[in-house]
Amino acid sequence: MYLLLIWILNALALIAVANFVPGIHVEGFGAALIAAFFLGLVNTLIRPFFLLLTLPVTIITLGLFIFVINGLLFWFTGSILKDFVVDSFWNGVMGAVLYSIFSWALSAAAAQLMRKSS
Prior knowledge:
The protein has six helices and two strands, in the order H-E-H-H-H-H-E-H. It is mainly α. It has one domain. A two-stranded antiparallel sheet has the order 1-2. The chain is globular.
């Protein structure tokens, strides 16, 4: 149940990002659900490989290169899905940052509400 709630909240965060960043487009809530699912898969399966591969650059840049990796993966997800479009790399970086902030805030609020209800 909690995983389903987090998935829905991530889709809502993706819609919010599309409203804040002009270069990101989501064609409705269904497309946001699919995009949130694929972003989760990409972040679970591909991101660790890229983090390990670029570890020296990440260390030299004091961790700032992770923003580049997140932006690239966000942009990549937008390029493989039809109803989720990320126009450029920089829109991907801004979208990834905002998506992380929004999904973190929504997940924290949901966790607080679930703790209070139990």
